[in-house]
Amino acid sequence: xxxxxxxxDTIDKSKLPKHIAIIMDGNGRWAQQRGExxxxxxxxxxxxxxxxxxxxxxxGVKYVTLYAFSTENWNRPKDEVDTLxxxxxxxxxxxxxxxxxxNVRLEAIGQIYRLPENVQEQLxxxxxxxxxxxxxxxVLALSYGGRNEIVEGVRAIAEKVRRGQLEPADITEQxxxxxxxxxxx
Length: 185
Ligand code: IPE
Ligand code: MG
Fold this sequence. Notes:
The chain is about 50% helix and about 15% strand. It is α/β, with parallel strands linked by helices.
């Protein structure tokens, strides 16, 4: 705790980025190096998320996006996927009160409909509980794929063109941004 505070004091708060994105990786390797099972790494990964969110909220960062589970991650052994989903629910259940105290808002991006129903349910609950907050916005990228995000955006744009609401020549970088999952950020 002391160490974390010292580190925070060394940061120039006028030079903070508005949005920090973190790709969660290496949990399994981290555990293996310590002679432990992969789940041990995932468990400690949850701890890192807790500390990161707390520090970002304290610093006044507006957005932290955690790339926590990719579309490719569905190809992992069922046991591991199940464990990750269980950790996700446990994290949301246990952390929502603290996130609330820290004025953190929660959002989720990705193919949320592919997540198990109990995960979706807990996500909806936590998002609702934290919806009035206006400090840090914590964005969980779940069943997220970069190309998939583009596909869904392009489909929505094509649909507008088909309905005659948009001319192909009027499609700009801004149009694309407005059709990505990150449009509000
Ligand atoms: C990140 O760690 C956690 C998730 C992607 C869910 P990994 O599970 O990818 O760990 P390594 O990369 O195999 O070490
Ligand atoms: Mg990995």
